[in-house]
Amino acid sequence: MIHLDGNTLTMEKMKAILFSGEKVALSEESIAKVKQSRLMVERIVAEGEIVYGITTGFGKFSDVRIEAEDVAALQKNLILSHACGVGPLFSETITRAMMVLRANALAKGFSGVRLSLLEKLIELVNKEVYPCVPQQGSLGASGDLAPLSHLALVLMGEGEVMYQGEKLETKVCFARLSIAPIVLEAKEGLALINGTQAMTAVGVVAYLEAACLFKQSELIAAITMEGLHGIMDAFDPLVHEARGYPEQIAVAARMRAHLEGSKLVSVQGEKRVQDAYTLRCIPQIHGATAQTLTYVKDKLTIEMNAATDNPLIFADEGKVISGGNFHGQPIAFAMDYLAIAMAELANVSERRIERLVNPQLNDLPPFLSAAPGLQSGAMIMQYVAAALVSENKTLAHPASVDSIPSSANQEDHVSMGTIGARHAYQVIENVRRVYAIEAICALQAVGIRGAHKMAPVTHAFYTAARHVVPFIDGDRVFSKDIEAMTAWLHAAVQEPGKVMTNEVRGS
């Protein structure tokens, strides 16, 4: 059981919640804070104070006063009108993350919701009832209004949910599970949707997948080193300590560990004086992506524990303040940065694939073919990798550099952070397929040279991977091989013990 208090949620806890089915609950401290902030909202309504979103309309309608008897209808109308999301649905994993992050934000006690509403949200998380939330429609400022409205709809008993792999009307699912819907009261609709939890949820899942893939990228690159008789001198600690980047030093150390004992790698001057950049500069290139992952994790961890709705209620100080914590700019930048860094990881992988299949760049059979000329071998695999890399270059265009004013120019600058997060996730999926192709080609190369000569670490990967994609002894439908390898690599995100790459020393 993981307790939510709005302050101590970590990436490791989120991983347990998302992939290990860990249940969540509120901390005793957060319960007290939630109750205290709710009392202040009830006083504001009772005394008829003019406070944004509680006794006024929203956005450009902030100057429209709402009477006490209409505050509940105001909140319901807000959710109904804002549930405008379009496009494919977010995955259940991302939706679960969204629900947990929203609950954690409300648990900080700055939002003024009733404890019963927060408990209802947690009940849905623990019973694995997931709102159907369309991916498109958020500007990433004023919060992720459209996506979070679809989440809020379900609390009201409206909309649709996914439950045990089945898409159901919410009221049908609630009846089946004896769940009672919530009737929203003052401030609660606004508190549910004024936040960055959609972009942050996508960001959290994207980060977790990227971090796993990053580890795999090093091991796959190490096998490519063996397939191309790469020169180990480039990983000498003296080289990397001379520059000083900790991440670069760490990548070089892991590459040495992965390749320790290999009879397939070479030394400077043995076969050639130096390697091409995509081999020689693995620590520098991969290390730079590692720096980005550290930055992204830091920003996501802050945002996971942030109060991002508006207005915020500071009960101890007796203040209700309208601000802009819903603005997604910090996450927008982080997601754009993640997309760029991961896209570059694929760029370097595709160039290594080219070196594996191009007979002008190695002494292996052309395109790793079993019968060159009669059979094409891995020729089109490189085409596919090139296409994925090219697609990533368009997806990596920063979403955060755009802004379109909304709400009659009241909301005149927005982050587009949710678009950036979605693009980053798409990039990561493409990167994984590129590395699946590099893995297939590298495994073929070392298989040709003699797998028994591999390092113990890389050979363990080779042995396990051969159960996924067998040696290429003739042309076949390689699409199936690529997808099988991709799925195998992806499985490590949820089940670290299932794929050897997460058990490698020093990773």
TrEMBL record:
Kindly list the places in or outside the cell where this protein is found, as annotated in its UniProt entry: Cytoplasm
Q: Which domain of life, per UniProt?
A: Bacteria
Keywords noted in UniProt: Cytoplasm, Histidine metabolism, Lyase
Record's catalysed reaction(s): L-histidine = trans-urocanate + NH4(+)
Q: Where is this cross-link: 5-imidazolinone (Ala-Gly)?
A: A141-G143
Q: Name one GO cellular component term.
A: cytoplasm
The reply on keyword Lyase is yes
Q: Which GO terms describe its biological process?
A: L-histidine catabolic process to glutamate and formamide; L-histidine catabolic process to glutamate and formate
**EC code(s) of this entry:** 4.3.1.3
Kindly tell me the pathway this chain contributes to: Amino-acid degradation; L-histidine degradation into L-glutamate; N-formimidoyl-L-glutamate from L-histidine: step 1/3
From the Swiss-Prot or TrEMBL record, what is one GO molecular function term?
Answer: histidine ammonia-lyase activity
Q: How is it modified after translation?
A: Contains an active site 4-methylidene-imidazol-5-one (MIO), which is formed autocatalytically by cyclization and dehydration of residues Ala-Ser-Gly.
UniProt keyword annotation of Lyase present:
yes
Chief localisation class: cytoplasm
Residues bearing PTM 2,3-didehydroalanine (Ser):
S142
Q: Which family does it belong to?
A: Belongs to the PAL/histidase family.
Family annotation (NCBIfam families): hutH, PRK09367.1
Q: What is this protein called?
A: Histidine ammonia-lyase
Instruction: Tell me which species this is from.
Output: Shouchella lonarensis
